[in-house]
User: What shape does this take?
Amino acid sequence: MTEERIKPRLPRYIRTSCFLVAFVVICLIIENPFGEAETREIVRRVCNAFTVPGIVFSGIGALSYIFRLGVYDGILYSFSNFTLHNIWVTRQPKSYKTFYEYKRARDEKGRGWLPHVLTVGLVSLLIGVLLLAIYLVL
Assistant: This one.
């Protein structure tokens, strides 16, 4: 990868990593691993503190990838047509008359996803698995 391609992505990864670290710190505060005397128990609680945010972040990243594939288009189209025009009556006309028009418009706009969230979540999950291996060895 060239430097031009890496530079714009770096702030996303740094920001996501900061959120993950904050989540890990909150989990550490909740778990209170350093109040334990036994090393094995400390490692288990730190493992939990890395695994939970890893699962949450990688799950969000995976869902955004699935969303990019268009899996949720039918649900979103149904929600926008039924809920917004039948339950909350608006004076705006329906944006799309058919699901085909809606899907074509979504494809033309382009669909983004969150690879940085998935990557940071998988790294945290990997750290959790490594700590689990250490826990099982102790």
